[in-house]
Design a protein that fits this description.
alpha/beta; Ribose 5-phosphate Isomerase B, Chain: A; 6 helices; 5 strands; 15% strand; globular
């Protein structure tokens, strides 16, 4: 299950990604926003991050104009490793080496076609573990120390 959300500037891309998820028969929860509502991105980032953090959803997707605000907000949640990805290589390594659990898109910087290709790679790539697991564990230790 994937939680997906956007602000008003990411709405069109979110709808295109939902079509892709439907085609691939991948379950998702749409956490907003709708075309009619204008919402500040931190509210949506919070909803999606809480779904992933609580394990109600396995992963998340966030979309705003640049992707930066969404990723910054999502990474304020313990256990969330949100990666802003503008190409397939970054998406691959965000999973392979960092075990990212939320993917952020900048709607102004990727086309729907590019986003679908990035998402495909991100969903198909498994965490490599090994020395990278040690590093992800270090991130968790830093979270434990600083996120009280």
């Amino acid at each position: 299950m994937i939680a997906i959300g956007c602000d008003y500037s990411g709405y069109s891309l979110k709808e295109e990604i939902k079509k892709y998820l439907d085609e691939k028969k991948i379950s998702y929860k749409d956490m907003g926003c709708t075309l009619e509502e204008r919402i500040d991105y931190p509210y949506t980032a919070e909803k999606v991050s809480e779904e992933v953090q609580s394990k109600q959803c396995d992963r998340g997707i966030l979309i705003c104009r640049s992707g930066i605000g969404m990723s910054i907000c999502a990474n304020k949640f313990k256990g969330i490793r949100c990666a802003l990805c503008h190409n397939e290589t970054i998406a691959k390594f965000s999973r392979l080496h960092n075990d990212s659990n939320i993917l952020a898109f900048g709607a102004d910087y990727v086309t729907a076609s590019e986003a679908k290709n990035i998402l495909k790679i991100w969903l198909e790539t498994e965490f490599e573990g090994g020395r990278h697991e040690d590093r992800v564990n270090l991130i968790s230790q830093i979270e434990d120390k600083n996120m009280k």
